[in-house]
Amino acid sequence: xxxxxxxxxxxxxxxxxxxxxxxxxxxxxxxxxxxxxxxxxxxxxxxxxxxxxxxxxxxxxxxxxxxxxxxxxxxxxxxxxxxxxxxxxxxxxxxxxxxxxxxxxxxxxxxxxxxxxxxxxxxxxxxxxxxxxxxxxxxxxxxxxxxxxxxxxxxx
Length: 156
Known about the structure:
By secondary structure, the protein is mostly helical. 90% of the residues lie in helices and 0% in strands.
């Protein structure tokens, strides 16, 4: 959401700037050759910035998915071991990791976003209850891991 707003603002400012430069050259009676080169250069710089943001968000998604997979795998081991205290502390870490990049996923991969949300919320909630329902929580965690692996495949 934040990256979408930033991109829209940059695009709007760039558009206003480009139209403003064109109006200035037309009013001054210039032949436009220099301004066309400048406009092309400015437009390509704007595209580079958007591309850089896109690459940055893809990198953020990849690292976020890797972190979530690590936490989900640890949670799986703790569930199998029946270590309720560690499960209760590890479960919320999934949500914390997800918050760091969920807006990028929501914008770029809405289907995968819905899948992660579908299994993340019950997994985190299940990790907080006592006594643990090891079978259900293990199944939810497996489904979350599968969904995260699918997202990782999509990002590459």
